[in-house]
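Table S2 (continued). Query chain:
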Amino acid sequence: MRNVVLVPGFWHGTWCWNLVTEQLAARQIPSIAVDMTGQGLEGPSPSARWSRPFDAAAFATEPSAVASVTATTAAKALVERLRLIGGGDPSVVVAHSMGGVVATLAAEMEPALVSHVVYVAALVPVAGLPAGAYVASDENEGELGTAMLRADPFAIGASRLDTGDASGRQAIREALYDDVPRGTVNAVLDLLNPDAPVGIAAESITVTPERFGALPHTYVTCSNDRMIRPPLQHRFVREIDEISATPTTVVPFDSSHSPFLSQPAALADTIAAAWQ
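Corresponding output:
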């Protein structure tokens, strides 16, 4: 029986898929979430985050411990996890946001370990540009993600959030969780990693029709996404289809950037369709 492997995006860990995994279990679908390299249990915090009194200048300039992580290193780690989880058999890979970069490259590296890729408001840079270039593109006009950052990513090697500051928490809430219950958002904000590896967003990756393109793909679009704007999501679908043997299945959601928290049952239904 195929497994579903769930990959979080930047700043998130395996916990973000908890509501979805229980919905998949209710549908008799085996699933497991894995941390992206440099995130979750592998996501160290800068020491300045915990220094008291808090020094905002030190927090904004301390080099990140995840600065050496790249899309390639993260994809290789995901491939090894897929091999372990599936015992060499393919799994359905579900990737959110920046996790789409890692899942895409892993699928190119070892397509035999992937039966279907499901993207959830994800970055899928298959046309030779790094993910970061898409974030700054015209199609992503109006995004609120950049305003969340509390340091120069290229100076410290990471996209850094401050979840201890009231204004920072509000910015994150508006960008990622606009339709998620406030109590859930408050709990989530306490779980986020402060640093996400800018090397994943900065690396250009290469995929081919014979490997990545031979796999089936599903893309969940989120109409109220303030992080990856809908026009950019649709651009990714078009670019995937230019290299793929079959058209991408597009599933529209009326949601913010994080339907795994706001609509877990509906998202589980979409994943179940890819698992069949």
